[in-house]
Amino acid sequence: MILPIVAYGDPVLRKECKAITEDYPNLDALLENMFETMYAAHGIGLAAPQIGVPVRIFIVDATPFEDDEDLSEEEQKFVSTFKKVFINATIIEESGDEWAFNEGCLSIPDVREDVFRQPDIVIEYQDENFKKHTEKFSGIVARIIQHEYDHIEGILFTDKLSPLKKRLIKSKLTNISKGKTNIDYRMRYPKAKKKR
């Protein structure tokens, strides 16, 4: 089922998400809905809070980068099959010289900005069968994981921008939170605060 994606301004996007256990209800359906929702919005990653569920789950599918000419042949081969579920993830190390990459977010449509992140990460997580993994990722895949990981920590990519950049996009963010967007996927906008 394709679910609406939560828009910028909704408090759920600012929550530090809770870990889940193996008895979490309807996990298979949740993951299936997340993939369906992500693909319908042409995304490469989606975190549970983006569909209004504040738990430590995110999904990644880097396959759209397989034809990216900026990637080496080896990287293209790797991303062409990279599709994963991350449950209860913790990034335990980030290393290397920061590099800029133009990021966007399904919860913040029509806003793209260069964000600096370190190129290498080590992450501990459980897969959809709750099998534990500790893996190292680099380059574009690490970048996607870091972006989605931030979501389960209550952080948005716009938080990483300079004060000047934040001021320049402020009106765009306000419009998104008010539902003034022109996108081709379903969104859930924050409810307007009632005047007392």
CATH fold name, please?
Answer: Peptide Deformylase
Task: Give the CA-based shape.
Answer: globular
- The span between the termini is 37 Å
Number of strands: 9
Number of helices: 4
What Rg is obtained from the alpha carbons, in whole angstroms? 17 Å
Q: How much is the average pLDDT? A: 93
- Proportion of β residues? 25-35%
Order of adjacent strands in the largest pleated sheet: 2-3-4-7-8
What share of the residues lie within helices?
Answer: 25-40%
Second CATH tier, the architecture: Alpha-Beta Complex
Tally the structural domains: 1
Structural class: alpha+beta
Catalytic activity: N-terminal N-formyl-L-methionyl-[peptide] + H2O = N-terminal L-methionyl-[peptide] + formate
GO molecular function, one term: metal ion binding
Enzyme class: hydrolase
Protein name: Peptide deformylase
Helix-strand layout with pairing:
Blueprint: E1 5-6, H1 27-40, E2 45-47, E3 57-61, H2 73-79, E4 83-95, E5 99-105, E6 108-117, E7 120-126, E8 132-138, H3 139-152, H4 163-177, E9 187-188
Parallel strand pairs: 1-9
Antiparallel strand pairs: 2-3, 3-4, 4-7, 5-6, 7-8
